[in-house]
């Protein structure tokens, strides 16, 4: 029977003033099953690699502009297409940085949506029902657009489907309480309009979902009273009677879902295959009031086959790509893998004895979502007993029991068991101040079977207990730590006294790196990348644009202090872990603004110290030691300055720091300028023919012009 596996967080949701809106305008599959485009309801498009749960790129329109339909991927040209302010089509490539500098074209009529199928050309559907292929529209953007819909008729939903060899644009409309279905065929162009049968007075469909099977287009739609209907349209013969005259469209009742008291408000029914439907926003028949679930129903046997409670508010939105459900809830966009094997009546009723269904192999192993095919009763029973037992056992007994379980060879790959153990341990530690098992939790993290999504309170527990070694392990092994948690770690690390930090036992490799860095604090060393202390002194009097010059006496002590690490050894190790954590700029910046000016200055001073050490000619190679890269250091400098520049300008203590950072940039600019001057000479040198017979020793004079 169908199954929903353990989900994981793809990204957080940006809060909006409309609490009933998830802020997501659409999700579209990109180049393959592991990449999706997420368009928010305001200004941004973000490309995610689903298995890594991190963004690969993000593009934003200017303030005051709005994206009015979800972005799509043109698989023919490897470009992205979106629409802003209803009429402006934007096209860009993945390597483009600024969306405003990409291709733009303004059309003559408002666009409802741009739709694309893999291997096909994108199609533009206008708000008044007209359809154009993208290339045809861009050849003459201001071409007149006809009105297909009647007065007071508006589009409510749309999609596109490839049926046999022809692409169809499918959309539904509403006019004075009546609902219509349009099927627009492309190459050859055909248009057919159908009238949906009415439900109770005042009820209109909440959601639509379309699929193609057995040479028919099947439309599934959900009403507020819980009734799920299906209408079937044969593909053949669609073009024989073209026109806008509405034909009656028969329907059949697929299910009558339980709605409890009242009517459904925000709900969706999504076709998964010929026998299964995913439903969100509909009450679970066995759960109490006030709980929201994602469920899979079998339409053939009218049975609920899988259900998962979703924390936070449900917005009635659901997308499905490659056996993964994408659902926004609360402040999170979650990915829920699922399977829907062919079912018999026995399996639909839960009476069939069969091995547990194997989860999709494409799901990343560290997400606690693999289920093994072969049943292993002994391990399952033992784990279940252990989970029940640790809720009341003493700390020492819990540690011994968990160590025994982890030492078993068949436990190393049992991620559901590890996730369950961690959840119980963290929950008990939060509720019982006297209970805490740091060594056990560290062992569980080092199994690499966990991620933040499995136990969102894990890192916060480590911060609350000031277990900095456990914090370090989480930052190293959890690939999906949210930006808010990353900033919470940064705030805790930067504000802690150095004395407390030195008491923590941290990763030896990380400590070795910082010992190497700090051991070279003394002595005059040359700097690379176009910067040295002499150039700093020479440029210090220039100041910044519009600022006061700084005197030589003021500069020299500052320069000497830069050679010393402004924080203790262990605190530096913890800050380095933050620098190496993955993040998204747009989600990280709001949380960085919570840092105080004192902590910001200290953090920038440490980043400046690292930059200077990395720029030294004599800086030793640290292969094999865990350490941040120079690019990561500079990225954090930019982020912190973006978040706090106004405050820093008004802070007297930060004046010298800002001037130094300004001078670093000037040094880099000068270096690039000097390299540009000799670029042609270097190219000529590279193109020169090398003499084959030069003997054992020779001197050659090369004249560069």
TrEMBL record:
Residues 528-538 have a biased composition (Polar residues). Its main location: nucleus. This is Nucleolar protein 11. GO terms for cellular component: nucleolus. Keywords: Activator, Nucleus, rRNA processing, Transcription, Transcription regulation. The keyword Transcription applies. Residues 528-563 are annotated as: Disordered. Residues 1-338 form the Nucleolar protein 11 N-terminal domain. Residues 396-705 form the Nucleolar protein 11 C-terminal domain. It is found in: Nucleus, Nucleolus. GO terms for biological process: maturation of SSU-rRNA. The gene is NOL11. The keyword Transcription regulation applies.
């Amino acid at each position: 029977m169908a199954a929903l596996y353990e989900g994981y967080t793809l990204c957080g949701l940006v809060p909006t003033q409309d609490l009933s809106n998830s802020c997501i305008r659409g999700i579209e599959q990109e180049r393959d099953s592991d990449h999706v485009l997420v368009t928010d309801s305001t200004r941004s498009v973000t490309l995610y690699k689903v298995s890594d749960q991190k963004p690969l790129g993000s593009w934003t329109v200017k303030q005051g502009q709005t994206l009015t339909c979800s972005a799509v991927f043109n698989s023919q040209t490897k470009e992205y297409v979106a629409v802003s302010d209803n009429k402006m089509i934007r096209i860009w490539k993945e390597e483009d940085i600024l969306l405003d500098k990409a291709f733009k074209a303004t059309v003559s009529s408002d666009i409802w949506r741009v739709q694309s199928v893999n291997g096909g050309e994108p199609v533009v559907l206008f708000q008044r029902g007209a359809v154009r292929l993208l290339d045809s529209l861009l050849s003459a953007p201001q071409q007149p657009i006809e009105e297909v819909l009647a007065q007071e008729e508006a589009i409510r939903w749309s999609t596109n489907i490839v049926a046999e060899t022809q692409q169809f644009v499918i959309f539904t409309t509403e006019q004075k309480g009546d609902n219509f279905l349009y099927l627009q065929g492309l190459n050859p162009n055909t248009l057919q309009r159908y009238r949906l049968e009415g439900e109770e007075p005042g009820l209109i469909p909440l959601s639509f979902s379309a699929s193609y099977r057995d040479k028919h287009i099947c439309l599934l739609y959900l009403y507020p009273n819980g009734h799920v209907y299906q209408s079937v349209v044969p593909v053949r013969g669609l073009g024989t009677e073209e026109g806008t005259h509405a034909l009656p469209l028969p329907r059949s009742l697929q299910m009558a879902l339980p709605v409890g008291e009242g009517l459904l408000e925000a709900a969706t029914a999504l076709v998964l295959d010929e026998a299964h439907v995913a439903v969100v926003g509909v009450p679970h028949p066995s759960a109490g009031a006030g709980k929201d679930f994602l469920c899979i129903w079998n339409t053939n046997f009218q049975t609920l086959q899988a259900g998962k409670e979703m924390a936070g508010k449900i917005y009635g939105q659901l997308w499905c790509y490659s056996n993964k459900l994408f659902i926004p809830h609360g402040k999170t966009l979650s990915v829920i893998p699922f399977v829907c094997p062919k079912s018999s009546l026995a399996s639909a009723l839960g009476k069939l004895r069969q091995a547990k269904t194997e989860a999709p192999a494409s799901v990343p192993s560290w997400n606690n979502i693999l289920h093994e095919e072969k049943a292993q009763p002994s391990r399952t029973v033992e784990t279940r007993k252990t989970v029940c037992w640790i809720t009341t056992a003493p700390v020492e007994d819990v540690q011994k029991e968990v160590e025994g379980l982890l030492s078993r060879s068949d436990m190393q790959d049992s991620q559901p068991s590890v996730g369950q153990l961690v959840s119980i341990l963290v929950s008990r530690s939060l509720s019982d101040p006297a209970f805490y098992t740091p060594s056990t939790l560290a062992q569980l993290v080092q199994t690499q079977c966990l991620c933040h999504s499995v136990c969102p309170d894990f890192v916060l527990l480590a911060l609350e207990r000031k277990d900095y070694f456990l914090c370090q392990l989480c930052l190293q092994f959890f690939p999906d730590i949210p930006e808010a948690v990353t900033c919470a770690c940064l705030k805790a690390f930067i504000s802690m006294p150095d004395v407390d930090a030195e008491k923590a036992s941290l990763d030896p490799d990380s400590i070795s790196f910082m010992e190497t860095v700090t051991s070279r604090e003394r002595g005059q060393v040359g700097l690379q990348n176009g910067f040295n202390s002499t150039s700093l002194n020479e440029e210090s009097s220039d100041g910044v644009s519009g600022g006061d010059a700084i005197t030589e006496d003021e500069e020299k002590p500052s320069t000497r202090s830069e050679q010393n690490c402004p924080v203790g050894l262990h605190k530096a190790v913890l800050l380095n872990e933050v620098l190496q954590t993955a993040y998204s700029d747009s989600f990280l910046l709001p949380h960085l603004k919570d840092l105080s000016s004192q902590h910001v200055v200290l953090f920038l001073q440490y980043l400046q110290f690292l930059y200077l050490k990395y720029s030294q000619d004599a800086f030793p190679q640290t292969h094999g030691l865990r350490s941040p890269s120079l690019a990561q250091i500079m990225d954090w400098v930019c982020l912190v300055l973006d978040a706090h520049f106004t405050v820093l300008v008004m802070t007297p203590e930060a004046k010298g720091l800002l001037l130094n950072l300004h001078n670093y940039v000037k040094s880099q600019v000068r270096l690039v300028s000097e390299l540009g001057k000799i670029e042609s000479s270097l190219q000529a040198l590279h193109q020169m023919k090398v003499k084959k017979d030069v003997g054992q020793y020779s001197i050659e004079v090369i004249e560069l012009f």
